[in-house]
DNA sequence: CGCCTTTGACCCGCGC
DNA sequence: GCGCGGGTCAAAGGCG
């Protein structure tokens, strides 16, 4: 299994490297153009090269970061000779001296000659001469070339010829790179499939293993997983000395980011074109930016088909709009853009709970079937922040405040807001990731989540009783974090018949902003936004067998562990970290996600770092941030036992 | 004066 | 096509 991970990682690195090289060549060509040589170059050839490069560079979503990585080659991956040549040639072009006829002639005479004097050096070594300036003007402007002498004409012709040759060579090598990328993509997909199969087998095997072996299983997963496992995170928080002494330091949280999109260059596409465009332009730090796409964006590791679309960079092509497009693009590569919503139920007498963010009310409506009005708020912490939330009291119990968050913050969040944002983003991530593209995947998702006991038996012993309610009904998939019920109530709560439930470490936990904010590195939430996302099928089509038994199976352990950790003052911190970590940890048993653990999970990391879905901490600036009075108090013995239902409507 | 809330109007999607 | 409901806009007014 670890080899599969390794190969996947290597493929990703190689792909990124190649794409980066390709893009760098395109950039250098653009430099040439800016230097006034455009008129020498066949526009057709030029654009062809650029388009090829651009498309390659964006193949796996590396548009933004590709250039940042071009300077560093991966030593672990052999550098193809053609790429080396390409790099050397493009470098040569970049440093071509336009200030001297001799240099130009030299260029023609020896294309492989080492870099010449820099223009500045030339100027320093040779006092400014009128001729130099004229030549420069002639060469660079390309306008007065017709009036230049025959010598200049010949020079220009030779230069043009050499450039054409170079461009042709670049073009050919681009084609080779393209082919390489295609092959790599195929291999990557195959490896993903193998990984999926292997994980499925592993999950099945885990079913047969006694619970006592779960520790070993966790270790194994940890070993395979570049990130911390949930259990590790708990230990990490509860017993920092142990965690740190074992080599895990707070810096490890940053290590999460090392697998994040910023490094793997996973392309994240936003539903909202302007946001996506803005991000491309500003190249926002992934650590703070990526997440925003959590609920709105799609991450597709299998971006092969899209990669073949040279119009990828075209905003108008960000989203597949026609059915034709969707048919052409494999399901896994389609871009579903649906906003996920995270609804938090909490008991609160206040009209609105403070969650660390600033909100402005922009509307209020009377919702049908509820005498209480629904208020609409917009985040005002930053201009243009798309995050919105709805606040409404439950009709049945007006003491319960339902806060629904939508969108992702486009700005840094204060620690208090980051905490809940991480949780909600993780919830959104799970929501979307749980809604896989295919029915089989969904069924597998539910079935194995429930039957394999992955969460309850091994990775999530402390969270077995925690569930969230997921409603994927139109118009937006929504996950509800119910913080209103007592832990035991929730634990024994019978899920509605129309819901499919499985243990999920989402909710019912107080958010310790000190922990999460203090870490400063919001633990990534793996998010896979399946292309062509659609709301999960109605529960009727979802197999839930074994779920109930799973909860029962883990209940004893859960209660024991809950009682033990409830008294731990760091309990809430552990929960918070575990929640995020679990969300960020790979879910080998999950059908669709597992194939993207390396990618999407990392993306999610950054997404979480961004505080995506909006913060939910609405409690007063007291200790229980985001936790309604009496429901979720840090250290509350109820919390560990709290239960949430993750259901699919 | 600026920010915020209120509130009616408007838009849009969906179902009949 | 029409009505309904959800969501948003924007003018008006309040408040510090």
UniProtKB/TrEMBL annotation:
Coiled-coil residue windows: 160-194
Primary site of residence: nucleus
Ranges for domain WRKY: 348-414
Database matches in Pfam families: WRKY
CC terms in the record's Gene Ontology section: nucleus
PANTHER family: WRKY TRANSCRIPTION FACTOR 36-RELATED, WRKY TRANSCRIPTION FACTOR 47-RELATED
Subcellular location: Nucleus
Molecular function (Gene Ontology), one example: DNA-binding transcription factor activity
Protein name per its UniProtKB record: Probable WRKY transcription factor 47 isoform X1
Polar residues biased stretches: 118-127, 299-310, 633-649
Gene: LOC110755743
Chain residue ranges for the region called Disordered: 102-127, 299-333, 612-649
Keywords (A to Z) from UniProt: Coiled coil, DNA-binding, Nucleus, Transcription, Transcription regulation
């Amino acid at each position: 299994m670890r080899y599969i991970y390794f190969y996947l990682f290597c493929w990703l690195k190689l792909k990124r490297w190649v794409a980066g090289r390709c893009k760098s060549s395109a950039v250098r060509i653009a430099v040439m153009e800016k230097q006034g040589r455009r008129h020498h170059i066949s526009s057709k050839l030029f654009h062809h090269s650029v388009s090829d490069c651009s498309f390659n560079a964006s193949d796996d979503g590396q548009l933004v970061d590709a250039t940042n990585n071009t300077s560093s080659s991966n030593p672990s991956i052999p550098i193809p000779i053609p790429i080396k040549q390409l790099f050397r040639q493009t470098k040569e072009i970049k440093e071509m001296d336009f200030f001297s006829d001799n240099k130009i002639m030299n260029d023609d005479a020896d294309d492989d000659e080492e870099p010449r004097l820099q223009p500045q050096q030339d100027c320093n070594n040779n006092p400014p001469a009128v001729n130099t300036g004229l030549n420069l003007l002639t060469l660079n402007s390309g306008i007065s070339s017709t009036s230049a002498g025959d010598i200049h004409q010949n020079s220009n012709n030779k230069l043009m010829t050499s450039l054409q040759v170079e461009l042709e060579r670049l073009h050919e090598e681009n084609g080779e790179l393209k082919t390489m990328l295609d092959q790599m993509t195929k291999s990557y997909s195959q490896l993903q499939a193998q990984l999926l199969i292997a994980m499925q087998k592993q999950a099945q095997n885990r079913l047969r293993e006694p619970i006592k072996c779960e520790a070993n299983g966790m270790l194994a997963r940890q070993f395979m997983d570049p990130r911390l496992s949930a259990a590790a995170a708990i230990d990490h928080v509860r017993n920092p000395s142990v965690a740190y002494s074992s080599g895990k330091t707070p810096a490890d949280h940053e290590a999460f980011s090392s697998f994040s999109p910023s490094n793997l260059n996973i392309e994240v596409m936003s539903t909202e074109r302007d946001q996506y465009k803005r991000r491309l332009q500003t190249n926002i730090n992934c650590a703070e930016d990526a997440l925003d796409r959590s609920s709105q964006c799609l991450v597709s590791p299998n971006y092969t088909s899209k990669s073949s679309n040279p119009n990828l960079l075209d905003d108008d092509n960000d989203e597949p709009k026609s059915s034709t497009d969707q048919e052409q693009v494999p399901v896994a590569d389609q871009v579903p853009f649906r906003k996920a919503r995270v609804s938090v139920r909490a008991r609160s007498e206040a009209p609105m709970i403070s969650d660390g963010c600033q909100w402005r009310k922009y509307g209020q409506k009377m919702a049908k079937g509820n005498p209480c009005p629904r208020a609409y708020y917009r985040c005002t912490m930053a201009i243009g922040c798309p995050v919105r939330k709805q606040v409404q009291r439950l009709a049945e119990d007006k003491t319960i405040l339902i806060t629904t968050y939508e969108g992702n913050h486009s700005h840094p969040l204060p620690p208090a807001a980051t905490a809940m944002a991480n949780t909600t983003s993780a919830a959104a991530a799970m929501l979307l990731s749980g809604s896989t593209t295919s029915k089989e995947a969904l069924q597998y998702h539910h079935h194995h989540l429930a039957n394999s006991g992955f969460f309850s038996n091994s990775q999530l012993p402390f969270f077995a009783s925690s569930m969230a309610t997921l409603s994927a009904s139109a118009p937006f998939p929504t996950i509800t974090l119910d913080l209103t019920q007592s832990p035991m109530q929730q634990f024994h709560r019978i899920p509605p018949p129309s819901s499919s439930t499985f243990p999920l470490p989402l909710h019912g936990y107080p958010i310790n902003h000190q922990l999460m904010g203090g870490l400063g590195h919001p633990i990534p939430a793996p998010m896979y936004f399946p292309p062509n996302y659609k709301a999960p099928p109605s529960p009727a089509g979802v197999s839930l067998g074994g779920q109930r038994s799973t909860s029962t199976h883990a209940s004893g352990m859960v209660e024991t562990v809950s009682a033990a950790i409830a008294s731990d003052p760091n309990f809430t911190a552990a929960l918070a970290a575990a929640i995020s970590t679990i969300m960020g940890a790979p879910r080998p048993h999950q059908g669709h996600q597992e194939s993207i653990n390396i990618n999407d999970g990392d993306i999610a990391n950054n997404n979480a770092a961004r505080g995506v879905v909006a913060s939910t901490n609405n409690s007063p600036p007291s200790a229980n941030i985001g936790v309604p009075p009496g429901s979720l108090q840090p250290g509350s013995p109820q919390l560990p036992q709290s239960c949430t239902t993750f259901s699919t409507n």
